[in-house]
Automatic annotation (TrEMBL):
One of its GO terms (molecular function) is flavin adenine dinucleotide binding. This is FAD-dependent pyridine nucleotide-disulphide oxidoreductase. The keyword Cell wall biogenesis/degradation does not apply. It comes from Methylorubrum populi (strain ATCC BAA-705 / NCIMB 13946 / BJ001). InterPro entries: Auxin_biosynth/cation_transpt, CHP04046_FMN-dependent, FAD/NAD-bd_sf. NCBIfam families: MSMEG_0569_nitr. Keywords: Oxidoreductase. Coiled coil: none annotated. It comes from the Bacteria.
Length: 422
C-alpha cells in the first residue's frame, strides 16, 4: 500500500545562501517548511572554486540575515576557506530543517491546487515552492571542444583548482569575465605561459581616489538601485560582471599589463577547424570598451566627489599600458605549446524539473522581485533579482524577507478561507 506524500507548507529547493536565508525568515515567522539540497550546504563554494579564490567585494558587504560579517578585516576579501567557514557558521545559526543529499526531480501543480514535489527520497506536497538553486547549473562548453585533439586537457572553470593540476605546457583560457580573468592571472602569476581569448566583459578599478570603488558606489546609492530603476531594466540581468580581484588585499586586473608581461591575447574564440583556432578580430575593441567602462565609473565617482565637496586625493584616469598589434585571427594549434584549455564562458540555467509557466523563451524565469505570475512559485538568489546584490551575500537576505512576507500573506489568506469554509 502506497503511503500518502508528506505535506509541508513551503518547499525550498536549494540549500545555499539563498535557501538558507529563506529558511531563516520562515523560521522567524514560525512557518513550517523543508529545505531540499541535493548535495550539502555550502557545497559549491567548497568544491567548485579554485584554491586562491576570494571575494571581489569587501567583507563588510557580507550581510546574511542575522549573520553580518564580524571578522577582523571588514575592508578585506574573504578567501575560499573563510567563505566556507562563514557559510557553515550561518548554517549553524539558522539550524534549518534541511534534507541534504536529497535531489528534487520534479515539481508540478496537482488538480487540488497543491504542488507535487518528487524527490530522490520520496514524494511530498507543498502549498508554496521557493526555487533557491541559483542560475548557474550547466557549465557551457562549446561543441568545438569535441574537435580538439585528445591530447589537449580540457576543463571548465568550476573544475579548475590550481596551475599544478594542468599538464606542463601552455594554457589557453577562454573567456575574460570574472572567472576567466582571475584564472588567467592565477596561471600567469605561477609562471605558466597563458593564451587568453578575450570577450566583452567590462572592468572596474579596485581602488580609486583613496577608497575601494565598491565603497564609493555604495555611498552613491548604486547598490540600492532596483532593476525597475536601472536604465537597462530587465536587460541588466544579462550583463557580464566586471572583472577585478580581491586577491592579496585587492587590485585591478589589467589584461594589457598581462600582455606586456608576455600573456598572449586574442579576440573571441569562434571555432576550431583544420587544426587551427579561429578568433574574432575584436581584441582592440574589447580592451578599449573595458577601459571606457573603467574610466566611466571613475568619472561618475569624480562627479559625486565634486558635487558633495568631498576631500579625496586626485587620481588620473587609466591610460593603456599596451596596445595590440596586427590581430591574430588564426592560430595553428600544432605550432603552439598549448596542452590544456580552461573554458570560462559561464553556465546555463536548468529548471527542467519545474513544470510551471514561469519561463521566457530562453529558459529564464519571469518574475518581479522573485514573485512569479503563477501563485505559489518564487525564485531567490538570481543575479539582479531586485538589486545588484540579489545574487550575493549583501542583498539576498532582503530579497528572502520580501518573498517570505508574500508567502506568509498567501498562507494566512488560505487558512482564513479554509476556516470560513468549515
Amino acid at each position: 500500500m502506497t503511503s500518502e506524500p508528506r505535506h509541508v507548507p513551503v518547499a525550498v529547493v536549494g540549500g545555499g545562501q539563498a535557501g538558507l536565508s529563506v529558511s531563516y525568515h520562515l523560521k522567524q515567522r514560525g512557518i513550517d517548511h523543508l529545505v531540499f539540497e541535493k548535495r550539502s550546504a555550502a557545497h559549491s563554494w567548497e568544491t567548485q572554486r579554485w584554491d586562491t579564490f576570494c571575494l571581489v567585494t569587501p567583507n563588510w558587504q557580507c550581510d546574511l540575515p542575522g549573520h553580518p560579517y564580524d571578522g577582523p578585516e571588514p575592508d578585506g576579501f574573504m578567501r575560499k576557506d573563510e567563505i566556507v567557514a562563514y557559510l557553515k557558521a550561518f548554517v549553524t545559526k539558522v539550524n534549518p530543517p534541511i534534507r541534504e543529499g536529497v535531489a528534487v526531480t520534479r515539481v508540478a501543480r496537482r488538480d487540488d491546487g497543491l504542488f507535487s514535489v518528487e524527490t530522490s527520497e520520496g514524494d511530498y506536497t507543498a502549498d508554496e515552492i521557493v526555487v533557491a538553486s541559483g542560475g548557474y547549473h550547466t557549465p557551457i562548453i562549446p561543441r568545438m571542444a569535441e574537435r580538439l585533439p585528445g591530447s589537449i586537457t580540457q576543463i571548465h572553470s568550476n573544475q579548475y583548482r590550481n596551475p599544478a593540476q594542468l599538464p606542463a605546457g601552455e594554457v589557453l583560457v577562454v573567456g575574460s569575465g570574472q572567472s576567466g580573468a582571475q584564472i588567467a592571472e592565477d596561471l600567469h602569476l605561477a609562471g605558466r605561459p597563458v593564451h587568453l581569448a578575450v570577450g566583452d566583459a567590462p572592468r572596474c578599478a579596485r581602488f580609486y581616489r583613496g577608497r575601494d570603488v565598491v565603497t564609493w558606489l555604495a555611498d552613491m546609492g548604486y547598490y540600492e538601485m532596483t532593476v525597475d530603476d536601472h536604465p537597462l531594466r530587465d536587460g541588466v540581468r544579462d550583463n557580464t560582471n566586471h572583472y577585478v580581484t580581491g586577491r592579496d588585499g585587492g587590485r585591478d586586473i589589467d589584461l594589457r599589463r598581462f600582455a606586456s608581461e608576455g600573456m598572449r591575447l586574442y579576440g573571441v574564440l569562434e571555432d576550431y577547424r583544420d587544426g587551427s583556432l579561429h578568433f574574432r578580430d575584436g581584441l582592440k575593441r574589447s580592451l578599449d570598451q573595458a577601459d571606457r567602462t573603467y574610466n566611466g565609473i571613475n568619472a561618475a565617482i569624480d562627479k559625486y566627489i565634486a558635487e558633495n565637496g568631498i576631500d579625496a586625493p586626485a587620481q588620473a584616469h587609466y591610460t593603456p599600458v599596451w596596445e595590440p598589434g596586427e590581430p591574430v585571427t588564426r592560430l595553428a594549434l600544432a605550432e603552439t605549446g598549448i596542452t590544456s584549455v580552461v573554458w570560462c564562458i559561464g553556465f546555463t540555467p536548468d529548471f527542467r524539473w519545474l513544470d510551471a509557466s514561469v519561463f521566457n523563451g530562453a529558459g529564464s524565469p519571469k518574475h518581479r522581485r522573485g514573485v512569479t505570475s503563477e501563485e505559489g512559485v518564487y525564485f531567490i538568489g538570481l543575479p539582479w533579482l531586485n538589486t545588484w546584490g540579489s545574487g550575493r551575500f549583501g542583498a539576498v537576505g532582503r530579497d528572502a524577507e520580501y518573498v517570505v512576507q508574500v508567502i506568509q500573506k498567501r498562507l494566512s489568506a488560505e487558512r482564513f478561507v479554509l476556516k470560513r469554509a468549515v
